[in-house]
Specification:
Structural class of chain B: alpha/beta
CATH superfamily of chain A: MetI-like
Largest sheet of chain A: 2 strands, antiparallel
GO cellular component, one term (chain B): outer membrane-bounded periplasmic space
Number of domains of chain A: 1
Strand order of the largest sheet of chain A: 1-2
GO molecular function, one term (chain B): thiamine pyrophosphate binding
Strand content of chain B: 15-25%
Number of helices of chain A: 23
Strand content of chain A: under 5%
Order of helices and strands of chain A: HHHHHHHHHHHHHEEHHHHHHHHHH
CATH superfamily of the largest domain in chain B: Periplasmic binding protein-like II
Protein name (chain B): Thiamine ABC transporter substrate-binding protein
Helix content of chain A: over 70%
Order of helices and strands of chain B: HHEHEHEHEHHEHHEHEEHHEHH
Oligomer: heterodimer
Number of strands of chain A: 2
CATH class of chain A: Mainly Alpha
InterPro entries (chain B): ThiB-like
CATH class of the largest domain in chain B: Alpha Beta
CATH topology of the largest domain in chain B: D-Maltodextrin-Binding Protein, domain 2
CATH architecture of the largest domain in chain B: 3-Layer(aba) Sandwich
Keywords (chain B): Signal
Shape of chain A: globular
Radius of gyration of chain A: 24 Å
Largest sheet of chain B: 9 strands, mixed
Number of helices of chain B: 14
Chain lengths: ~550, ~350
């Protein structure tokens, strides 16, 4: 990870800078090594050393299986399609929701984040109720096709693009665009020549995160793909939990790591060419005639998000043949015949507590990482180290939750790393999932800050720390809130790792929902829907409040 | 303005630090529970469907002076594999939930230690042929084809009765099955067909099923709640693979009768076992947990808590169960050792046959 360190001699300015850089990065790197590298390496070792002897042949043979090729190909193209569609829908929506002023824009922004926390099992069922036989869109014949999977991937990830690009767009200096327009450029030319290049960092950032989310999507592929379409992630799950074929699982995990690394390298190269962007607070303007296409695309995006959610809400309000709130009232009970040990209301408390922990962990680590990876490099070696670190912290997104979960069990079981029983394991695991999202939200903004502002602060007598606080953090206020919101939402909705690690007496809401869905009895089913609606509403509310918190005009702008 | 920004940052960091203290740290009780001496704490590793009334667990703790810590670990497959992987330093003292389709794998890997638990009357019938000195049967339920009897009444059709009927064109496009690789009832149903048609004959049967329009889903909940007409009342298929206990949950309040029924000639029985883990830190406590799971109180609580039948004779079942949850007399069976040996081949073949 930090392999490309040039030979250093103490006292040399480059070496000092490198040391300072590594010192700053040491904390996050240590955390990632213990909670990510070690467990994953442990599982890979199980595959490479079956019965204690090194046998790489067995792993390589797996890679030659035709099924593995099919699975890899489907993973790549479905994730690519999902990413492209998400960006195409998300960028115009970011413009409408963050640059235009109209009543309800904040509510819409908060609502767009709802899918992000919905448990995949529930969304899968909701999509199938809309698309499947007997559903309102059954005539499209999409049930069980890759199109349904891709639609669901877009549904889940739209918020990533809208929020990442939106926050970057919101703080974008409008003057270059205004200048271009004044010089006679058409709105399309303005967008392509002035706005888009300035947003490229944010878009590439968001797209690479979305691709990773798509490529490692699990529950939704399982539910919507039926058994016809397997991805690398679902395959690892089956091989590890059902077949205990750890050689094959190791082969696929390795494949996942390689693909992710290549992707991150490409994304980093693209981002590196983005110039620094001046930022200033601008007032959102009223929508005009030129905004019509963007508004139309936004409506399509909103519809895509709304339909499954409406289906859930309708389902949760059904009581027998009529309507009512009975399913919601039942949430403080343990279900028909005590399906769940803990009522949903109590699980919501657990979820919120864990989410706060996961949020501060991922934002704290993410901030450090972002500062480290975006500082201007003074040498090639330094730039390589920063680039390497940047990619390193994205890796947790690209690795199967199952591999990580099983890895925790076999590697973190001896002092001083005896964490298997620790209540911190759940928030830590969730923070790792959220970390790349936090970094990708903060890094583009930090990278866009003109280094001369820091130099000005320093020359006015500010210490490096003070320069960091007054320049970087002041500009980061809004993106920090966005990142914290993301981390919070990821934590609330995370199911894969959580279901492995959460303790029985302290389940989170998604875990309880999964339990409710696992039992016959239509009330349990309706309660699961009601609980999902409550979870989504809770998240949207928190997001809404967080957005209200920021005070325009205060800070270093 | 600089000072203000600094102050804001510092107070934010302070607030974060404070919240972290309040939320992340456990209460001293829990700390003691977690790190307390191993002799008064016992850890039960189980699957995600495990549930018992709190009252019973409290009673157990009072009677034995032990603290019972329950750790759910995925489904039966994930649970078994975790136990195999952590054999030398197990994640608990005692495990419950390894079933007859996974038992061989666990026994082969020496996951369980010897403990000859005293079984309640009637439980012997469910004990393993090999390994009964290590795994004690706790509960059983059968995976059976379920039909929506109300739907068949409405449509003036006689519901199917046997596995053969399911491939009959009269029932075209009526069946939905959770897939064998992704769902435990799906696997059980595959095993039922293997038992019926033999190791070389089931592939042909499945081809006929698929040709007759059988629909596959990845999970049980999907099949039951989305596609089955008797689940959430929205599906279009009146035949589903579910459990012998499911009809007890579809009782129509107005008529007092169940709207679905299990086909008792299509069943594969799943038995779940408990055992003391090899290398357990608290083997005595683990033995007490096994005895607890076999006690009259827990056996009586199983139907309501986990939707399964007790293995003990003479347990009073809930009212709806007495009437609508009928146990098959002669379910299909496949030798656990054969399952362990062929599981992967069968699943590969099944995937080939069904996606052709």
């Amino acid at each position: 990870m930090t392999g490309a360190v040039a030979p250093v001699t103490a006292g040399h300015p480059t070496a000092r800078r490198l040391l300072a850089l590594l010192g700053l990065a040491a904390g996050p790197v240590a955390v990632l090594c213990v909670f990510f590298v070690l467990p994953v390496a442990g599982m890979l070792a199980e595959g490479f050393w079956p019965d204690g002897t090194f046998d790489p042949q067995g792993v390589l043979e797996v890679l030659a299986r035709p099924r593995v090729h099919r699975v890899l190909w489907f993973t790549l193209w479905s994730a690519a399609a999902g990413t492209v569609l998400t960006v195409l829908l998300g960028v115009p929506a970011a413009h409408v929701l963050y640059r235009l002023r109209f009543p309800g824009s904040r509510v819409l922004r908060a609502m767009l984040l709802m899918p992000f926390v919905l448990p995949t099992v529930v969304v899968g069922v909701a999509f199938r109720q809309v698309l499947g036989a007997g559903g309102p869109l059954a005539s499209l014949g999409l049930d069980g096709t890759p199109a349904a999977i891709i639609a669901a991937l877009v549904f889940f990830n739209l918020a990533v693009v809208v929020r990442t690009v939106g926050t970057a767009w919101e703080g974008l200096d409008p003057r270059p665009a205004q200048a271009a327009a004044a010089l006679g450029a058409s709105p399309r030319q303005v967008f392509l020549t002035a706005t888009l290049p300035a947003l490229r960092g944010a878009i590439v950032s968001a797209a690479s995160v979305v691709f990773l989310f798509c490529a490692t999507a699990f529950g939704v592929v399982l539910v919507l793909g039926g058994l016809r379409y397997a991805t690398v992630e679902t395959e690892i799950y089956l091989l590890t939990t059902q077949l205990l074929d750890l050689q094959a699982a190791a082969a696929l995990s390795l494949l996942q790591l390689v693909v992710v690394t290549v992707l991150l390298y490409g994304a980093a190269r693209t981002r590196a060419r983005t110039a620094a962007v001046a930022r200033r607070r601008t007032r959102a303007r009223r929508p005009g005639r030129t905004d019509v296409p963007a508004v139309l695309v936004t409506l399509v995006a909103l519809l895509l998000v709304a339909v499954p959610i409406v289906t859930l809400v309708v389902g949760s309000l059904q009581v027998g043949d009529g309507w009512g709130l009975d399913n919601y009232r039942a949430l403080d009970t343990t279900g028909t015949d005590q399906v769940v040990l803990v009522p949903v209301t109590e699980a919501l408390g657990n979820s919120l507590r864990i989410a706060v922990d996961a949020t501060w962990m991922s934002v704290g680590l993410g901030l450090l990482v972002s500062v480290v990876v975006t500082r201007r490099s003074h040498s090639t070696a330094e730039r390589r180290v920063r680039g390497g670190l940047d990619g390193f912290f994205m890796l947790p997104l690209g690795v199967s939750a199952v591999t990580l979960g099983f890895g925790f069990l076999i590697t973190l079981d001896q002092p001083p790393l005896d964490f298997r029983d620790s209540p911190l394991l759940v928030p830590v695991a969730q923070a790792l999932v959220a970390l790349p999202l936090v970094v990708r939200t903060l890094a583009p903004v930090l990278a866009g800050i003109d280094d001369r502002q820091r130099q000005a602060a320093t020359s006015l007598g500010a210490s490096p720390l003070r320069a960091l606080v007054t320049v970087d953090l002041a500009l980061l206020r809004t993106p920090l809130l966005a990142a914290a919101g993301f981390a919070f939402a990821v934590s609330l909705g995370e199911f894969g790792a959580t279901s492995f690690l959460a303790r029985d007496d302290r389940p989170t809401v998604p875990v309880v929902i999964f339990k409710l869905l696992g039992h016959p009895g239509s009330q349990n089913y309706a309660m699961a829907l009601a609980a999902s609606v409550v979870l989504a509403a809770a998240t949207a509310t928190v997001m809404f409040v967080v957005e209200r918190l920021r005070v325009p005009g205060v800070g270093g702008f | 303005m600089f000072r203000r920004a600094t102050a804001t940052t510092i107070s934010t960091l302070a607030a974060l630090a404070l919240t972290s203290c309040t939320l992340a740290t456990e209460s001293s009780d829990e700390k003691a529970e977690r790190t307390g001496s191993t002799s008064d704490r016992v850890v039960l590793v189980t699957h995600e469907s495990f549930a018992l009334p709190k009252k019973l667990e409290k009673q157990f703790e009072q009677d034995t002076g032990l603290t019972l810590d329950v750790r759910p670990s995925g489904d039966a497959g994930a649970l078994t594999n975790k136990l195999v992987l952590t054999q030398d330093n197990p994640i608990g003292d005692v495990a419950f939930g390894v079933d007859n389709t996974f038992a061989s794998r666990a026994l082969d890997a020496d996951v369980f230690a010897k403990y000859d638990a005293r079984l309640p009357a009637g439980a012997d019938a469910y004990a393993l042929d090999e390994g009964s000195d290590r795994l004690a049967p706790v509960d059983q339920a059968s995976v059976c084809v379920n039909v929506d009897t109300a739907w068949y009444q409405e449509h003036d059709q006689a519901p199917p009765k046997t596995l053969d009927d399911l491939a009959d064109p009269a029932y075209k496009d009526q069946l939905v099955v959770p897939g064998a690789p992704t769902s435990s009832p799906g696997m059980a149903f595959l095993l039922a067909t293997i038992a019926q048609y033999g190791e070389d004959g089931w592939q042909d049967y499945w081809s006929r099923l698929m040709a007759n329009g059988a629909k596959l889903t990845s999970g049980w909940n999907d099949a039951y709640f989305v596609d089955f007409t008797g689940g959430a009342e929205k599906g279009t298929r009146p035949i589903v693979v579910s459990y012998d206990t499911s009809p007890a949950f579809t009782v129509d309040k107005k008529t007092g009768r169940s709207t679905t029924a299990a086909l008792l000639d299509t069943c594969f029985r799943q038995v779940e076992y408990a055992g003391v883990l090899e290398n357990a830190k608290n083997p005595e406590g683990a033995q007490k947990v096994v005895d607890f799971l076999l006690s009259d109180e827990v056996q009586a609580a199983l139907p309501d808590s986990m939707y399964v039948f007790p293995v003990a004779d003479g347990v009073v079942l809930p009212k709806d169960w007495e009437r609508f949850a009928v146990t098959p007399d002669q379910p299909y069976a496949v030798d656990p050792a054969a399952i362990a040996e062929h599981r992967q081949d069968w699943l590969t073949e099944w995937t080939d046959v069904t996606s052709r």
